[in-house]
Amino acid sequence: MANNETDIKIVAFLCNWCTFTAADLAGTSRLKYAPNIRIVKVMCSSRIEPVFILKVLLDGADGVFIGGCAPGDCHYSKGNFYARRKVALAKTLAKSAGLDSERIRLSWIPASEGPRFAHVVNEFTAHIKELGDNPARREVYI
Amino acid sequence: METMIDSRMMMTDFLTALFDKLDVAGVAVMSKLPSGEKTAFTLFTGKDDIKECVPFFPAMPANAARAVSKFTRQAVPSKTVAVFLRPCELRAFTELIKIKQASFDNLLILSYDCSGVFPFQEINLSDETKLNAYRDAVSTGKNCEGIRPVCAACTRFTPQGEDIAISFVGRSTDQPLVFSFPSEKGLAAAEQLGLDVSNTVAASSAVESLAQERRSAEEELTAEVDASLSDTQGLVNVFDRCVSCHACSYVCPICYCKNCYFDSQTFEYFPESYFIRMQAKGALRFPVDRVLFHLGRLSHMGVSCVACGMCEDVCPVNIPVSQIFKTAGSKAQALFDYIPGENYDEPLPLLAYAEQELEEFED
Fold first, then answer.
1. Each residue's pLDDT tens digit, A83-119
2. Residue B218, in any domain of the structure
3. Residues B251 and B336 in one domain
4. Are strands B164-166 and B39-44 parallel, antiparallel or unpaired?
5. Are the beta carbons of A84 and B284 separated by less than 8 Å?
6. Domain limits at B272?
7. B255 and B142 housed in the same domain
């Protein structure tokens, strides 16, 4: 099935203190960005487990986006360092298992950077569009 | 490398001496079962049944790290217990210590360079032909035909962290035991056993030749697994036989959780959600989340996977689980520069971090 702009589904896990606030700012600033992401707010990016990322991909979403505070700026001082290890593990396992690790992206977006949030979302959506449908999307036997 | 000495003791003499001279409370070791064909890891509290012990028998009915965890987890044994662990079991045991599921206090850990084991269903005490071939392979430092694929590709077959090491590869089992003592506890034991440390023996060249064979077997295995899991279709094909029995997790020495996340209510969905997923995919296979179970389990224990091979042994539908876990686990371990079972002081990778690292995964 051919992809169209609204067909792409990206699940985004955003930390409450930085990237979610940046998304909120992008909204209140009336910035327009690709409408493909579905945001799940988490209190800290380290709440994300590799299982979340892998489940999203196995169930057929085309991309997984994880957003957190910049290193050194974590609301809980070191949560994002743990998050980075978990995302690195998820990407490595995805790659070993034959899933496309390019569909996973981790970005640090501070609360005050609404325009950067919009830019990163656009960029990642375009990248996913290039990759095409996640083959797992219609895979019944997975 | 520690000096190796000729103990002038056969295995039965050594086991007797453990009770008589070291005054151990027990010896945990592989032993013959009354039915006469199979073996089990058994804790003996006296020397009466020593003739039933077969420490080197090439089978692993259970990863012994799990057994030793049972009697050390909640309290330290009141008296020294001697335990025989294969190198992979010892590595699993070290990982269990890190997650507070075991303790090495009051244990005297005996290990040896391991020639691998046969799948449990495929080896009996009466299989003379197989056992003779195995003995030949041990003494010449070769892989024996028929051992577990992950054993044949195991490059960490020399123990790490033991108190007494018994030299096995390149030796004959009808010769006296050759020991080395890498720890303080081991040296103290050597003294109590009254061993003459001047009877040194040279290391066998068979160890290096086995290491070489294992390295190339490991490369081949990695290439095979990578080829089978090159894309989503490959992933589906590899696991499509899985019946979701979860036996692989029940025998895994690292999977210590009493209530596995993947057996929990988290994966019992509201009926409506099955219909939503069915509509999205056009159909839905039951049970759901089979591949997720394997990848999720990998994410939980993969960095600690010691590639012991238990999971593959018990798989009722012959999925090469441990070959996949060994391959994917090694890549995850390399990511964090982590070797499971190397050092009990080292924290698990997901419980540690460096401020500057893994830059290729962030932006």
1. 999 999 999 999 999 999 999 999 999 999 999 999 9
2. no
3. yes
4. unpaired
5. no
6. 229-355
7. no
* Predicted confidence (pLDDT) per residue in B182-219, tens digit: 999 999 999 999 988 888 999 999 999 999 999 999 99
State the pairing for strand pair A37-42/B4-6. unpaired
Residues of A in Cβ contact (< 8 Å) with B229: 96-98
Q: What is the ipTM of this complex?
A: 0.94
> What are the chain B neighbours of A87 within 8 Å (beta carbons)?
361-362
CB contact under 8 A, B350 and A135: no
CB pairs under 8 A between A and B: 123
Query: CA-to-CA distance for B26 and A109, rounded, in angstroms?
Result: 59
Residues in chain A with CB shorter than 8 Å from the CB of B350 are 82, 85-86, 89
- Residue A3, sorted as left (phi over 0), alpha (psi -120 to 50) or beta, turns out to be beta
> Locate tokens 């999720």: which residue?
B296
Q: Are B141 and B280 contained in the same domain?
A: no
Q: Which residues of chain A have pLDDT under 70?
A: 1-6
CA A48 to chain centre: 11
3-state SS, residue A76: coil
Asked if the Cβ–Cβ distance from B299 to A93 is below 8 Å, we say: yes
Per the structure, the count of domains in chain A is 1
What pLDDT, on the 0 to 100 scale, is given for residue A1?
A: 43
- For residue B286, what are the contacts with CB-CB under 8 A and spacing of at least 6? none
- Residues B127, B165 within the same domain: yes
pLDDT tens, B248-279?
Answer: 999 999 999 999 999 999 999 999 999 998 88
pLDDT of A51: 97
Q: A20 at the B interface (CB within 8 A)?
A: no
A108 contacts B349? CB cut-off 8 A: no
Closest residue to A84, CB basis, from B232, B235, B362: B362
Find the closest chain B residue to A89 by CA distance.
B332
Do B199 and B236 belong to one domain?
A: no
DSSP letter, residue B149: H
